[in-house]
Amino acid sequence: MLVVAKIITLLVAMLHCYFLWLEMFAWTTKAKKVFRNFPSDLFEPTKSMAANQGLYNGFLAAGLLWSLTISSPEWTVNIALFFLACVFIAGVYGAISVSKKIFYLQGLPALLGIIVWSTLKFGL
User: Fold this and answer.
1) pLDDT digits 0-9 by tens, 40-79
2) Residue 68: partners with Cβ closer than 8 Å, 6 or more residues away
3) Hey, where are the domains in the chain?
4) Do residues 17 and 63 touch, judged by C-beta distance below 8 A?
5) Which one, 29, 35, 63, 87, has least CB within 10 Å?
6) What is the pTM of this model?
7) Is residue 90 scored above 80 in pLDDT?
8) Distances, alpha carbon 54 to alpha carbons 22, 28, 69, 79, 109, in Å
9) How far apart are CA 45 and CA 49, in angstroms?
10) CA 40 distance to own-chain centroid
11) Per UniProt, which keywords does this protein have (predicted)?
C-alpha cells in the first residue's frame, strides 16, 4: 500500500509539473490547444497571470516530491497529506469557479492519494 501511495503522490506531482510548464512557458502556444474554451485573444494579455498560477503549481509539485524524499515515515505521510489536501481544495475550488473537469483532473487524483495515505496512517 505504501508503494501505491507514493505512486499516486508522484503522479499528482507530475501533473503539477505539467501545469507549471503549461502555464509558465507554453501559455501562448500549447495552452491554446488545452484550454479551448478560453478566448484565444486573452492568452497574450494574461501571460503573466498564468505564469503566476504556474509558479503555485510548481510549489505544490515541489511539496509532493519533497514528501517522497523524507526518511521519517511519519513526516512523509503528514507532508504528503498536507500537499494533497492543498491540491484537492484547489481542485474543488476550480470545479466550482471554472469547470467541473478541473475536479476530475486535479481533485480526484489528490483525493485518491489522501485516502490511500490516510489508510496507511490511521488504518481505516
Assistant:
1) 999 999 999 999 999 999 999 999 999 999 999 999 999 9
2) 6, 9, 10, 13, 76, 80
3) 2-122
4) no
5) 29
6) 0.93
7) yes
8) 7, 13, 23, 21, 19
9) 9
10) 24
11) Membrane, Transmembrane, Transmembrane helix
Q: Which residue type sits at 43?
A: F
As a whole number of angstroms, the distance between CA 113 and CA 116 comes to 5
**DSSP line for 11-67:** HHHHHHHHHHHHHHHSTTTHHHHH-TTS-GGGTTTTHHHHHHHHHHHHHHHHHHHHH
Identify the pLDDT of residue 115.
97
Helix axes 73-97, 108-122, angle to 10 degrees: 150
Distant-in-sequence, close-in-space partners of 42: CB < 8 Å, separation ≥ 6:
none
Distance of CA 62 to the CA centre of its chain: 10
